[in-house]
Amino acid sequence: MNDANAIFYRLRPRLQAIAYSMLGSVADAEDAVQDVWLRWHGTDQAAVNNVEAWLVTATTRVAIDRLRSLKARREHYVGLWLPEPILTDGPATPEQIHERHGDVSVALLSMLERLSPEARAAFLLHEIFDVGYADIAETIGKNEAAARQIVHRAKSQLRDGEPKYAVSPEAHGRIVERFAQALSLGQFKLLKAMLADQAELIGDGGGIETSFPRPLLGGQRIAQLFYASNLRFKSALRIDLASINGELSVLRYIHDALESVQTVETDGDRIVRVRVQRNPEKLARIASELGVPLYSTGGASPAA
Q1: Comparing C-alpha atoms, which of 267, 128, 269, 283 is closest to residue 205?
Q2: Running DSSP on this structure, what letter comes out for residue 132?
Q3: Among 107, 106, 122, which residue's Cα sits nearest to residue 67?
Q4: Where in the chain is the domain with CATH 3.10.450.50?
Q5: How confident is the model at residue 92 (pLDDT cuts 50, 70, 90)?
Q6: CA–CA separation, 140 vs 127, rounded Å?
Q7: 15: exposed, middle or buried (C-beta count within 10 Å: 0-12, 13-18, 19+)?
Q8: I need a surface site. Which of 119, 191, 204, 261 has the fewest CB within 10 A?
């Protein structure tokens, strides 16, 4: 492997993380990074002073272009769109360990959908990947002052959209563990107590598995929905925990087949939002990594 290839492969986890954070899809991120690979081999590499900066800039620009196209397609998505979750247990290489600081939660990825592609890129590069304003400005074709303003406005837009809860990973994990236990045992009263009165459940079935066309509101209604799954599937239902996008999350199995990935948002006291990913196209990678089949309802909803 020559030096140019070695540099690219060393930086590939970082490039993949940037592309995924921009696009919310592993497959689209892989395509974007492959495009950058081809561009890298088509450029005069000897003229590149800072290879990492060049590759990060190229990846971000490719992702911006792809996101414009994806946003148009997502306007016609069947039901509610949620990003593809990724399993983040046990990073296998030092490069992946180094990139764990770039994990972006499903909640943040969902919020980022309200930003323009350029604003999303500027926010992610500065806030998640520690890129300086001068490099951000070059990447998005603005001057440094404009780049600062774009990041500031993006942060304000995200902050104004919904409250941001300062919850430690430890506190979040404890709540998710209790939630998983309540789901596993079918403890309706505990589920209801753990869910905020105005909690919401957002489900993504991708038009393949039936899900809700709009968020389901109300802690009691959500608790009833989960409890109904226990009554229906009894011992066939199994709840596990896993790190998803860097956060402890719930995996739900039916007949030992992966049915959904559920990520939890909390205010530190109660659960305010549950995002349920049921689209098999977005679960296939996790199921493959876990070595389990995917559960199919044939379009019928298994209660949640």
Answers
A1: 283
A2: -
A3: 122
A4: 169-290
A5: very low
A6: 16
A7: buried
A8: 119
Q: Look at residue 117 and tell me whether its pLDDT is greater than 90.
A: yes
Question: CA–CA separation, 223 vs 284, rounded Å?
Answer: 27
Q: Does residue 70 contact residue 51 with C-beta atoms inside 8 Å?
A: no
Can you tell me the distance from the alpha carbon of 125 to that of 132, in angstroms, rounded to the nearest whole number?
8
Domain with CATH 1.10.1740.10 in the chain: 1-77
For 218, the enclosing helix (H) or strand (E) is none
Q: What confidence score (pLDDT) does residue 103 get?
A: 79
In the block, tokens 């860097």 appear at 246
Rounded to whole angstroms, the Cα distance separating 304 from 292 reads: 20
Mean per-residue pLDDT over the chain, rounded = 91
Q: Say yes or no to pLDDT of 304 above 70.
A: no
H or E, element range at 80 = none
Q: How far apart are CA 267 and CA 143, in angstroms?
A: 38
> In the CATH scheme, what is the code of domain 1-77?
1.10.1740.10
Token pair belonging to 204: 């993504």
Q: In what order do the strands lie in the sheet with 216-217?
A: 216-217, 195-204, 271-277, 257-266, 247-254, 237-244
pTM, rounded to two decimals: 0.90
CATH for 169-290 is: 3.10.450.50
A 10 A CB-CB count for 241 gives 16
